[in-house]
Amino acid sequence: MVRFLLARPIAVLMTFVALMVFSIIVFRTLPISLLPPIDVPQIVIKVNYPNASPEAIEQNVLSNIREELMTLNGLEEVDSKAGSEVGTIRLTFDYGTKMELAYIDVNEKIDRITNSLPSDLVRPQVIRINTNDIPVIRVQVVPKPGIDYAEVSLLAENVLKKRLEQLQGVSLVDINGKKEKGISVTPDKSALRALGMTEENLIQAIRNGNEELPGISVEDGQFRYYLRMATRVDTPEDIMRLPVRNNNGTTVDVARVAQVKYENKDVLGYHYFGTQEGLVITVHKQASAKMNEMMPLIYESLEFFKNDYPQVDFDVTQDQSTLLNAGISNLQTSLLFGGLFAFGVLFVFMGNYRTPVIIGISLPSSLIISFLVFYFFEISINVISLSGLALGLGMLIDNAIIVLDNITRKRKEGLPIFEACVQGVNEVMSALISSVLTTLAVFIPLVFLSGISGALFYDQAVSVAAILFVSLLVAFILLPMLYHFFFKNKPVEDIAKEDSKLFGKVLKGYKKLYQVIFLRRGLSFIIFLIFIPIALLVSQLLDSQGLPPIEKFDALVEIDWNEPIGVEQNRDRLLSSLEALGDGYLKAESDIGVRQFLLFDGENSIQQASVYFLFESQEKKNSLMDRFRRLLAENFPGANVSIMDAPNAFDQLFASNLPYYEVRWKDLGTKRPVEEERMDEWLKTFPTQNYDRGPALQKEASVVFSLDAAKMTTYGVSVSSIQDQVQKLFGNFTITEIKRFGEITPIRIKGERNDFEQILRQNYVPGTDGNEYAISNFIRFDYVNHYKFVTADKGGVYQSVLLTSDNPTQYDKSINQWGADKNLGVSFFGQYFKDKETISQLIGILLVSVVLLYFILSAQFESFVQPLIVIFTLPLGIGGAFIVLLITGTSLNVMSAIGLVVMLGIMVNDAILKIDTINRLRLKYAIETSLSAKEILNRALFEAGEIRLKPILMTSVTTILALIPVVFSAGLGADLQRPLVFSVIGGLTIGTFTALYFVPLAYWFIGGKVSIKDPETVIV
Description:
Pfam families: ACR_tran (PF00873). The protein is α+β, with helices and mostly antiparallel strands. It contains 31 helices and 31 strands.
């Protein structure tokens, strides 16, 4: 095939040019995003039920929804959590479930049970989780002093949001911190009593004044007119002119007995930018959008906003495109330094400019053509797929160097340039194909990991496979053609003199060390074998992490005040803490209380707040966060404070909502939470005290009202009148609503803000005797500690503790006995079991990879023994990588693991080519000479080492030098890539030595034992 294609250079060249043109066209259509559009198999249902207790939300809302959703297809887990005024249900599905259909099913089931839910409950919100739900940027909108906040909220909702949604690539714009206008009615109770009126007279008057007559029309001759009530109100002034009438017929205007005015509706949450109240707009991208094109449009729109709306200040925070830019920058750096160092190393080793130019052409050609594969497999350009391309670049350079070196060697043997190109490619073709297949055998099975990890590896596996197969295409067709073009007029004598003086010295040193090692073959082989377990044991000294520690200049502080405070108190505490902290940060934004985001799937609680800080340096961040922690601990010792690095898109994607090890129990008798006093006694005998209370065991103080039925009967006071009064005094009582062109303005009774005991004493209810009595006469109240949350799963309501022991499973047996003694059904749950399952999957997948690797090499070498040589080289390279990771203080993480795969791919490639060369030389000498088998083996091992020395050294040195600049670089991209670089450098340093000396040693003891049986076959 190579001969056929090289005979038609113009056709081959035009084909490659056409492929590159098509690839460039396709590249312009590929979506560019931060992460692959992964369907996370979770759906969250949020419930907002003002003034409802956790028990009421669980019994009246969440239990009904859970029962209805149990029949969903693919449903794996159900977890619900009811708190004060809010509740959430998290549905987890089997991975692979069609989440579009699951989302529709959930909505349909909720619509089906709407009538069984409380009538005053807003429809539960259903949120489908997707990687594209992670906002790419947050826009801060801060009204200037004196500007009406409600008007700015309308501006953000009706103008800014719409303009941002019209930008190309934007899928959703979400807002938090909005305030809406309403009309408040504050009764003058003394005036009402003086006129013999009640609040009910006032309420009825306002309702009558806002009546509609829908669908009523009258005829006037040949015309028909629709009726409209002229008394319908639009403004507070209209309401104040309405007449109020008592039972005796006395009539006055509303203005005489109440104050009516526009006010912002009561809110459950706030957003602050620094210490200024404002709104935040989060922007989400479409799955097919290009982030690098969308972000400039957003920044351009913000400049227009600043000019068009001078009454508002704008700013941006948490721009996630920095991660993508870091990934693209890393790829560009790899290409730039890879090309420069390849040129330099080849020039040093080869002493000519033509070979580096050929590789300089092949590298970008392979990369560009790879994007065609992206198009056909519907892969976006994201951080994951870009890391796959960077992963394959080392192998790409490796293949190019091997092919060119082999062609050059054939030229030195005196073959014509055409035959040298043909034979040079054919000789290494099967070995290179095997090396690519073995790399994919190590990597591609990771796609079958369950969950998000497997989905992420899919993009990486496709990108690696794409660039490796394209690199083979380039190495087998384009490279020999370019070699023929550049060297066709160069005489053979010049080719023979191409080795530089430096390489001559390296070759001389290699031969001396080779002789020393082979004089003591047994001892040298034993030393290599002893090094394997010692190096692998180094892994026990390494820390394990998900992502490498990245130097971040931002932080996130999560605060739970752990007290039953209102949202205003929550805000005041946080603002006072920020003011006491000072101005040591660049930017800060706070979400306080309940958040209004449509896509927020976290826990909404009035008593919680989160603050994002951006600092100018790591030192400033550390010192200020320590000070902030101390400040909160001194002023609010009961608060739970968590300070962490601000999560980026990676962290948010991989973050787990599961506790590490949770012990759950259910009361088998009552099916309800165990009472506080009894539970506290039981926990004293719990088998271990190394635990934290789970959500359903956390307590908060509350007030419980109890009605005195005896007194109510004596004075003729009805239960309904007490309940109505309490609702008006402490609740959110809506009289009616004004509806205009889709805009709804509620009219509400404004409750009193005094101490609740005083309110009960100062307000009255009528009795049957016509007298009024203070409400405090009929209500008793107690301060009690109640459970803060009610949690439930598929089996119903449960309570739990979170074990903090290093070995939590040691208590399983005694905990089961503890539960059985108290008629509790005990179960164990948490991330511990998920991690255990993932590790077992990973071990199984790696075993499959090794078996695949063995099968491929057995087919390549036609031997069951020689593949073991390649497999034995792998732990040597891994051990070398572990040693460098330990020396540099780097952890085992996702990026260092990817570096191991890169390094092993190059090592396997070198070992395969070395063994393949030894086999061919043994076959050649067996045919051409009459030497003994031992002499043939010695000669083949020595000459194969000399032949493969240059490509092995050039590949390793080029790869290492191309990666070294990352070690000394700063920034997010360098922090991400540095563990990968250390893995590759450590592995290749040992791996190069292994390929040069361990492979021939292992071949001597393992692969060379069987003599040649048939000259027509490859050595067995």
